[in-house]
TrEMBL record:
<dbReference type="Pfam" id="PF10168">
    <property type="entry name" value="Nup88"/>
</dbReference>
<dbReference type="GO" id="GO:0000056">
    <property type="term" value="P:ribosomal small subunit export from nucleus"/>
</dbReference>
<dbReference type="GO" id="GO:0005643">
    <property type="term" value="C:nuclear pore"/>
</dbReference>
<dbReference type="GO" id="GO:0017056">
    <property type="term" value="F:structural constituent of nuclear pore"/>
</dbReference>
<dbReference type="InterPro" id="IPR037700">
    <property type="entry name" value="NUP88/NUP82"/>
</dbReference>
<keyword id="KW-0813">Transport</keyword>
<feature type="compositionally biased region" description="Polar residues">
    <location>
        <begin position="695"/>
        <end position="705"/>
    </location>
</feature>
<keyword id="KW-0811">Translocation</keyword>
<feature type="region of interest" description="Disordered">
    <location>
        <begin position="690"/>
        <end position="712"/>
    </location>
</feature>
<dbReference type="GO" id="GO:0006406">
    <property type="term" value="P:mRNA export from nucleus"/>
</dbReference>
<protein>
    <submittedName>
        <fullName>Nuclear pore complex protein</fullName>
    </submittedName>
</protein>
<dbReference type="GO" id="GO:0000055">
    <property type="term" value="P:ribosomal large subunit export from nucleus"/>
</dbReference>
<dbReference type="InterPro" id="IPR036322">
    <property type="entry name" value="WD40_repeat_dom_sf"/>
</dbReference>
<dbReference type="GO" id="GO:0006606">
    <property type="term" value="P:protein import into nucleus"/>
</dbReference>
<keyword id="KW-0539">Nucleus</keyword>
<dbReference type="InterPro" id="IPR019321">
    <property type="entry name" value="Nucleoporin_Nup88"/>
</dbReference>
<keyword id="KW-0653">Protein transport</keyword>
Length: 754
């Protein structure tokens, strides 16, 4: 089961859930004492038992900010265990109070709604955020009501009936924002098609925030919003200022008396005539123009499965995980601003003193400007206009997960190095370090080109291709007071793994790469031909010009004094040129021999490496060919099944023409109305006939017998007429039924023939 921990300084309490015993184990861990690499754990562990048995299997646990409550979540239940209680008769066992959250909403058999993601709010110890399958984001206040939510946001990313993609309306994950301007009041919603949305502002009632951060947002709205020349920006900033002043009344009170404060509590407040808008989908931008969203979606495979918000310096980074094993890293290219949609009033729940205790609203997307977004636009042209912040693509990381691994990917940031993100999947743990942060580098004065992040494998749970992956059941990143970063993991065999991560050299990859690139360039320069042998030697010995001689010296012999003098002069010239050139060549070759040997050895090692890679490619080629053969067979089977389906009688049905539809409608009316009228007439006549035939005979006086006989003849005549009319109606009904059956048979035969 996933593990959580809470601690102070270098002492921590690691918690993990026991699936078999259905209890919680708490282990005290001490890191970095007495040696920086030392790890001490207490034995035996404390056992925390729920006061009421759990009827579901726990798949996730999460602890709140102050460590007083633990979330126990599963597919069929949601409980909160308070980590204080009474001692049990068993040794090292504590009975803890456990309550059920939202049982009437999420786990009702008549209305089964799945919980997609559950998370504690980062600025409250009692508020839970829950995203469910009915596209509703709810916030529960456990200190007030555990059954009903405090706030409900019904998400409508598209207008009803206008969506052609079902994945565009199915949320999968959410993430709370960080401590940066309006990010702290924002919730990022991820849908299965990869689109991201923002709802802002979302503030739990009673949550606590830093006074300086709230005052910074208040001053920003007054400086850049109210002084703008755009009326829309002025209106949006006025709404934001009114909301801030009502939610944090200290802004108005302490602005007058100049009192200092460190933290402020959010008061219950909701605009009465507007609902929070659903900002998005967030568009992708480059340094110059907008990127096509279809191209962006086509890069990653599968569907989106998770998102993570990470604040690194001045950059807000949004990481999206895909089921194909890719991570999409984007940075917000603009500040988040609150947006409301007027005319869509929320539903409020108030107490006896008219204090708001609950709110529900529909979050619809506002019509956004589809103009081309550029990063070099001045801030005053885009501030407080209500546009959702665009995304600047940093990188797409392919984790290259094995085929046997599932699509579950969990992400967590390093508590000491925010540039590092840990990714946990069925294949193990990977570390991703960001080396390019556009706005942080710009603020620090660094103008560097965009660099790809570095990806390192921290732990592998797939040691070989033949072995099946054994994923971790829990993962947590910790930091101690000595500046060390630790990773705690729980294996499938209930073994705890503790790894110490380097922190001082994580961001030195950039400098190392620059040195490596410089060294590589120098090596390539040295391996050039002109650096081994100089150009003068490659050009060969210089041409020797014979000295001019007199015509009478051409006929001298070599034995004569003149001949010897001429030969000595020629020998001296040749010696100065060719012998000295040979000495230079010998010296150059002898001097460069070690360097040449090094180059040759390097070439041989590269040759061996290429041969090894070629053998690996050939081995993989066989597997690829086998997969292609299987794919071809499957394709042939599917083609055969498709042909069989096409040969079925109803596969070539064509829609009826307008005349045929009108004729069928006329027949339906005739069958439904006229036949019913005929049946009702027949039933009425049968009733009248029965009444006449079975009427009681009374005793008549002798004076009225003659009249009776006359009336009897009249009644017999009427009965005969009724019988004849009844027979005619029966014949007409039979004829109409025969015609209707004939028409239906003709239509059926025509549809089969088509």
């Amino acid at each position: 089961m996933p593990s959580e921990s809470h601690g102070l300084g270098w002492s921590y309490s690691a918690l993990f859930w026991d699936l078999n015993k259905k209890c919680l184990h708490r282990i005290s861990i001490r890191l970095g004492e007495p040696d920086p690499t030392s790890i001490l754990a207490a034995f035996p562990s404390k056992v925390l038992q729920a006061d009421t048995p759990l009827s579901f299997e726990v798949s996730k646990i999460s602890i709140n900010r102050n460590g007083s409550a633990l979330l126990l979540a599963g597919l069929e239940g949601l409980r909160v265990m308070y980590l204080y209680g009474r001692s049990s008769a068993e040794e090292n066992t504590i009975i803890c109070r456990t309550v059920s959250v939202g049982s009437e909403i999420f786990f009702n058999r008549n209305n089964f709604i799945r919980t997609l993601q559950i998370s504690w709010h980062p600025y409250s110890d009692t508020h839970l955020g829950i995203l469910s399958s009915d596209s509703v984001f709810r916030i529960f206040d456990l200190s007030v009501d555990i059954g009903q939510p405090e706030q409900e946001y019904y998400l409508q990313p598209v207008e009803p009936g206008n969506s052609s993609n079902a994945a565009a309306i199915c949320p999968v994950d959410f993430s709370f924002g960080g401590d940066h301007l309006w990010d702290k009041f924002s919730v990022f919603i991820l849908f299965s098609d990869g689109s991201s949305y923002i709802i802002c502002p979302v503030v739990p009632f009673g949550s606590v925030y830093k006074w300086e951060s709230v005052l910074e947002m208040y001053n920003d709205a007054q400086t850049f919003g109210l002084k703008s020349s755009n009326s829309k920006a002025v209106n949006n900033s006025n709404m934001a200022i009114s909301w801030l002043e009502a939610t944090f009344p200290e802004l108005v009170r302490r602005a007058g008396d100049g009192a200092q404060s460190y933290a402020v509590k959010a008061q219950p407040f909701v605009l009465l005539d507007a609902s929070v808008a659903l900002q998005g989908p967030l568009r992708k931008v480059c340094h110059t123009v907008t990127e096509d969203s279809e191209i962006q979606k086509g890069i990653c495979e599968g569907r989106a499965v998770g998102c993570l918000y990470n604040l690194v310096g001045k950059d807000s980074v949004l990481v999206t995980a895909w089921s194909g094993g890719q991570l999409q890293l984007d940075a917000l290219a603009d500040e988040i601003q609150p947006v409301w949609k007027m005319g869509n009033a929320p539903r409020l729940c108030v107490d006896s003193s008219d204090q708001i205790i609950g709110a529900a609203m529909i979050c619809e997307t506002a019509p956004s400007d589809r103009s081309v977004l550029k990063l070099d636009q001045p801030p005053h042209l885009t501030a407080w206009l209500g546009h959702p912040p665009p995304l600047l693509r940093l990188a797409i990381v392919d984790l290259a997960l094995p085929d046997k691994c599932n699509s579950l990917i969990a992400m967590m940031t390093d508590p000491l190095v925010p540039e590092r993100i840990f990714c946990v999947h069925a294949g193990g743990i990977d570390s991703i370090v960001l080396h390019f942060l556009p706005f942080t580098n710009q603020t620090s004065g660094k103008e560097e080109a965009m660099r790809t992040p570095s990806v390192l494998s921290v732990l592998s749970t797939c040691p070989g291709d033949s072995s099946s992956p054994s994923p971790l059941h829990g993962f947590l990143a910790l930091s101690d007071s000595f500046g060390s970063s630790w990773i705690v993991g729980l294996t499938s065999s209930n073994d705890c793994i503790v790894l110490q991560m380097d922190t001082w050299n994580v961001l030195l990859t950039d400098a190392v790469e620059k040195v490596t690139e410089t060294g590589t360039a120098d090596e390539l320069k040295e391996t050039g031909t002109h650096t081994i042998i100089s150009k003068d030697l490659l050009s060969g010995p210089k041409a020797v010009l014979l000295p001019p001689s007199a015509p009478n010296l051409r006929s001298v012999t070599a034995d004569s004094i003149e001949g010897r003098s001429m030969l000595h002069q020629y020998f001296k010239l040749f010696h100065e040129n060719y012998v000295e050139y040979a000495h230079k060549v010998h010296f150059e070759l002898q001097h460069h021999a070690p360097h040449l040997k090094k180059i040759i050895d390097n070439q041989h090692s590269r040759l061996r490496e290429m041969e090894r890679k070629l053998l690996e490619v050939e081995r993989k080629q066989e597997k690829i060919e086998d997969r292609i053969d299987r794919a071809v067979k499957v394709h042939s089977s599917l083609e055969e099944r498709l042909q069989n389906l096409r040969s079925l009688p109803g596969s070539h049905k064509k829609p009826l023409s307008k005349a045929e539809r009108d004729f069928k409608l006329e027949l339906d009316n005739f069958n439904g109305l006229e036949l019913d009228a005929l049946h009702s007439s027949i039933e009425a006549l049968n009733g009248r006939l029965k009444r006449h035939m079975h009427s009681p005979q009374q005793a008549d006086s002798p004076n009225r017998q003659t009249v009776r006989k006359g009336n009897k003849r009249i009644q017999e005549d009427e009965i005969s007429q009724l019988k004849s009319s009844l027979e005619k109606l029966s014949l007409l009904n039979s004829e109409n039924s025969r015609k209707v059956k004939l028409v239906e048979s003709v239509l059926r035969s025509k549809e089969i023939s088509d």
